[in-house]
Amino acid sequence: MPITHEVRPRTSADGLPRSEQLAWKLAELAADPAPVPSDVVDMVINRIIDNAAVATASLLREPVVAARAQALAHPYSAGACVVGRSPELRVSPEWAAWANGVAVRELDYHDTFLAADYSHPGDNIPPILAVAQHVGADGASLARAITVAYEIQVSLVTAISLHKHKIDHIAHLGPSAAAGIGTLLGLDTTTIFQAIGQALHTCTATRQSRKGQISSWKAYAPAFAGKVAVESVDRAMRGQSAPEPIYEGEDGVIAWLLDGPEARYQVTLPAPGEAKTGILRTYTKEHSAEYQSQALIDLARRLHRTHPELTDPKNVASIVIHTSHHTHYVIGSGANDPQKYDPSASRETLDHSIPYIVAVALQDGAWHHETSYAPERARRADTVELWRTITTAEDPEWTRRYHSEDPAEKAFGGRMKITLTDGRTLTEEIAMADAHPLGARPFARAQYVEKFRMLADGVAEPEEAARFLELVQRLPELSAEEVVGLTVTARPGLLGTVRNPKGLF
């Protein structure tokens, strides 16, 4: 049975033993050699495919080009692979984690887990895979390490809210990635403990990266946490220590950045020897947009078919989306960000604007990772007119369902109340995204493979796409040499169509 640990700040005089510190409990979990169930391995494969799909689709986008140029300035042997380039070209693993992490995150199109806080657990995969390629780990070891990272990410996100205190969610990612790397390398509990502490200490940034005019740093932030995790493990392996206790200290993260000296968190972790199945609680995206918009995109697509009159703003007086606290205040009008209604806003900002997303999905009956965000699409006069009729409102019942621990009740959707200019009203709701495990069309292996093929089309040669898919689906059997092949090489000449920006390196 899982064990629930109470976590609270302590004074230095308390002398909190390591064995009672949260970072130690996480390190013990990472060092625990429990078997990995077959359904968990299958989901790990799905998420590696998912990451490769969205990374491949983003290869020519400016943040990814810049991150790749930085990584390629740090060649190293043995090293790790940079997505898009031949696996024969290897770079230092922390820089591969950086470049590949940006590629995975750029389109906001991979997996998610939402509870007390937000997360994209797939952000753990680039640093762990980079280290696996660098040290020569096999596929079974890679699968186990990713499983641990997901488990820790899910446990922390379930118990500890960062966003409430305007701390970015990468504060949970640094520790989970460091722990997963520790598992991959078979490190002892003490070394993993020190790496977790260092990663957490250096990953506590504010949420301004996801507020107002959102910049390209949104894609870089998780990659930074992955790079920090690799470097933290390296230092810990060399005998270097971390601030302690990192969570519970009187000048630590909880006391000063989160709920304060009186805080109490209940963090539930698997017991020793218990299977780590947290990855099965996570879910991916069918659409390239913030997760809390996924179900509402599906509802808007449905309304496009059933009520085509809604595509014309002259017929719409107002659309109010009744939804959860998080959706209203993060991607809705409750954020009070005028940029969410600005036709010239950045892609990163529009991807966090549910009024914009619903307007486009309602008019187009579809959502596309490029064309739906194109400047000419955002500035279309009838879209802007419709967009500005759309607001959100917090609904206590949707907030309750958002935080429910019952998988059958937990939901990230909402209810649309549409008032037409002729006085009629329409009310429609949706709880789960179509691709959610409980949705209308749940994602399984076939859907992950199709997503990869769609996004790799025109970017990688068909033979390269087929090679990757055949290899990754044999993950538990892969040798160290084959793990190096868990990357995707762009078709000849493609990466040369963009200019590498110059920097220090």
TrEMBL record:
This is 2-methylcitrate dehydratase. Transmembrane segments: none annotated. Residues 287-475 form the MmgE/PrpD C-terminal domain. Residues 20-265 form the MmgE/PrpD N-terminal domain. Gene3D superfamilies: 2-methylcitrate dehydratase PrpD. It comes from the Bacteria. Belongs to the PrpD family. InterPro entries: MmgE/PrpD_sf, MmgE/PrpD_sf_1, MmgE/PrpD_sf_2, MmgE_PrpD, MmgE_PrpD_C, MmgE_PrpD_N. GO terms for molecular function: lyase activity. It comes from Ruania alba.
